[in-house]
Specification:
By secondary structure, this protein is an alpha+beta fold. It folds into three domains: 101 residues, Roll (T-fold); 92 residues, ApbE-like superfamily (T-fold, Orthogonal Bundle); 120 residues, Roll (T-fold), CATH 3.10.520.10. The strands form five sheets. It has a nine-stranded antiparallel β-sheet with strand order 1-2-3-7-8-11-16-17-18, with helices on one face. Strands 4-6-5 form a three-stranded antiparallel β-sheet, with helices on one face. A three-stranded antiparallel β-sheet has the order 9-10-19, with no helix packed on it. It has eight helices and 19 strands.
């Protein structure tokens, strides 16, 4: 973990601020407290928790739990602890709530669609078919103390929800320290409690994917979570056809939706992240319905031709 942090005795605009690189992205935590000791203790506990989380659940680290489970696919179950069991139960819940659109076993597909290749290519139908045979959350055998992938070649990837889960846990940690005003931002996945010092509201800019780097508007986000999923930055073109990085495990191909990105407001970052991603699969009406049908959620979806949003989304918008 690369850490750039101010001395916890030093305030920025009345708040403590930590900036660091973790989970493959740039992160920040802003919070306020009247106690220097609480400020220091919370900072140390938050950074330690994130570091442990990444070491245990990143598929890119060979010694992580996820890597061990993937290597043991078709061989033997892997022992898990109570925190792991909580995460796997969350996967069960999210798989059910999204009618199967959310599926952490889609790693075999990710392995054949290489968006970082110098010369990207479209996998053959046979490769896609064989990868799909190894995908399916319902195949995973979950016990209270173990997890087992029954087919060799199966693989888990928590990248689709790990940061959002971590955001929620750090907010829980802040509350445990008695902190009532905080914002956690892990690579654009955000959740807040209370309000910032010297201001009545947390303001979160929402980028226009048609004008990358520019925020069209801000969202007022006190005691809310915001997550954005995009399909416009990571892609490649072959024979004039555009292939975005969001893979649909139901077909084996990238989503064919014309959507560029979706931003969702919800009560937790995990909910916001899953909804923003799932809303990009399908047509315009179905994308918005996924958001609208989830209690407490509002959102918007960007297309090349403009912006559509749920009924009460504009209640959170400010142009300032």
């Amino acid at each position: 973990m690369e850490l750039v942090t101010l001395d916890p005795q030093t305030l920025v605009n009345g708040s403590f601020h930590i900036s660091f690189h973790a989970l493959g992205t740039q992160c920040e935590i802003t919070y306020s407290t009247n106690s220097d000791k609480v400020a220091t203790d919370f900072r140390d506990h938050a950074l330690t928790w994130i570091e442990k989380f990444e070491k245990r659940y990143s598929r890119y680290l060979p010694d992580s739990l996820i890597s061990l489970i993937n290597r043991s696919a078709g061989i033997s179950p892997v022992e898990i602890n109570s925190e792991d069991y909580r995460l796997f139960n969350l996967c069960n819940k999210l798989h059910f709530l999204t009618n199967g659109v959310f599926d952490p076993t889609s790693l075999p597909l990710s392995n054949i669609w290489d968006f970082k290749a110098e010369i990207p290519s479209v996998p053959s139908d046979l490769k896609i078919k064989k990868a799909l045979e190894k995908v399916g959350w319902n195949k995973v055998v979950i016990q209270e103390n173990s997890v087992y992938l029954p087919q060799a070649g199966m693989g888990l990837d928590f990248g689709g929800f790990g940061k959002e889960y971590a955001v929620d846990r750090i907010i829980e940690l802040a509350k445990n320290f008695g902190i009532t005003n905080a914002m956690v931002n892990l690579g654009g996945d955000i959740r807040t409690i209370g309000s910032p010092q010297n201001s009545g509201s947390w303001r979160i800019g929402i980028e226009d994917p048609n004008l990358p780097g520019q925020a069209r508007f801000c969202l007022l986000a006190n005691n809310l979570a915001i997550a954005t999923s995009g399909n416009y930055q990571r892609f490649f073109k072959v024979n004039g056809r555009r292939y975005g990085h969001l893979l649909d495990h139901r077909t084996g191909y990238p989503t064919t939706s014309s959507y560029l990105s979706a931003s969702v407001i919800a009560n937790t970052c995990l909910e916001a992240g899953i909804l923003s991603t799932c809303s990009l699969f399908g047509g315009k009406d179905s994308g918005l319905k996924i958001i609208e049908n989830f209690f407490g959620a509002e959102g918007c979806i960007w297309t090349k031709s403009g912006l559509v949003w749920t009924k009460n989304f504009d209640d959170h918008i400010t142009l300032k």
